Amino acid sequence: MRVGCPKEIKNHEYRVGLTPGSVREYVAHGHEVLVEAGAGAGIGADDNAYRAAGATIAKTAADVFAKSDMIVKVKEPQPNEWVQLRDGQILYTYLHLAPDPEQTKGLLASGVTAIAYETVTDDRGGLPLLAPMSEVAGRLSIQAGATALQKANGGRGVLLGGVPGVLPGKVTVLGGGVVGLHAARMAAGLGADVTIIDRSIPRLRQLDDLFAGRVHTRYSTVEALEEECFSADIVVGAVLIPGAAAPKLVTREMLSGMKKGSVLVDVAIDQGGCFETSHATTHAEPTYEVDGVIHYCVANMPGAVPVTSAHALNNATLHYGLQLADKGLKALVDDHHLRNGLNVHKGKITNRAVADALGYELVEPKAVLAA
Ligand SMILES: NC(=O)C1=CN([C@@H]2O[C@H](COP(=O)(O)OP(=O)(O)OC[C@H]3O[C@@H](n4cnc5c(N)ncnc54)[C@H](O)[C@@H]3O)[C@@H](O)[C@H]2O)C=CC1
Ligand SMILES: CC(=O)C(=O)O
Ligand SMILES: [Mg+2]
Known about the structure:
Blueprint: E1 2-5, H1 20-28, E2 32-36, H2 47-53, E3 56-58, H3 61-67, E4 70-72, H4 79-82, E5 90-93, H5 101-110, E6 113-116, H6 131-148, E7 170-174, H7 178-189, E8 193-198, H8 201-211, E9 216-219, H9 222-230, E10 234-237, H10 252-255, E11 263-266, E12 287-290, E13 293-296, H11 306-327, H12 330-334, H13 336-339, E14 342-345, E15 348-349, H14 352-358, H15 365-370
Parallel strand pairs: 1-2, 1-4, 2-3, 4-5, 5-6, 7-8, 7-10, 8-9, 10-11, 11-13
Antiparallel strand pairs: 6-14, 12-13, 14-15
The structure holds 1,4-dihydronicotinamide adenine dinucleotide (NAI), pyruvic acid (PYR) and magnesium ion (MG).
């Protein structure tokens, strides 16, 4: 198979779908790899590094899209990318379709077979291709929140760790999954007073064990949300219902109960966000203010640290990428966890959460692959 990797074009997105190390693996499996010139610049991998790994360098993205059987990317295709996709081609990348009707229409019209990293599953109930970027974004959320909390940046001017004789800042984390765990770990490491809210009691038990009393846990009710958000300096939004639009846990009305200059970091923004007042921002202009509360809603947070992120992402995506390259669509038939990643195939929606969110008929992946 010919595997193509275009340069990412989303605002300040410096990650790359294939590192030179991954290219070597595809080449070792007998595949041709076509990489757009400059695709790895953001991680310090120049075209010669890709040539040394066995790739051919394409001058333009158009060349990569036209000549490849499978496109491996990081971010969801942008409008001028989805028009270049076609029937019979595989797209392997993050998609986040539930909050994005325009992209969904574009992918359906193209006929492409689109596999979303974020809905591929594993035996432990996890999302193995989302997890590494959730680890990065969770850790980054506290850096971003702490920066926004500084007075000169519009925040209320609190140092998260406090100092001897002065109480630390308070961080509330909504959703104690992968993002939430890593946010809590960073916040606790800085000395903040941290509370995690989740609706899963088994998960709260795990977190309580893990942090051995260093972090508080609370079951998710409106009362708990209000108390923990109203007293917080930073609230990290980290809830997820896989594939679906995020539930709006913090309403606009609740902002009036929050401290002026406190910060909402909505990591869940790629699934539409869990604060009613969130809208996606970019690394170029990451924050805005509503009712005195600073909002940070960057939908591609890991793009800020591409050297770490691209390698962590490739570690997770390589296995299934090779399966797809080796076997084509049979890889989806053979492995139900990979099949759970199938969101769009030949003009049909094949993921239930996406179909429900956007009002499409669901076509079962097994049925569509057998056709
Ligand atoms: N903005 C960005 O750059 C990035 C965003 N993300 C996003 O962050 C979000 C979280 O991802 P993960 O931590 O990997 O998900 P996860 O599945 O590991 O964790 C989600 C947690 O939310 C909890 N939850 C669901 N509904 C809840 C509710 N109503 N109240 C309280 N808790 C609730 C679940 O029990 C679970 O523990 C996702 O939307 C993901 O796409 C991930 C990486 C980068
Ligand atoms: C998961 C995601 O949206 C990202 O890594 O950009
Ligand atoms: Mg406390």
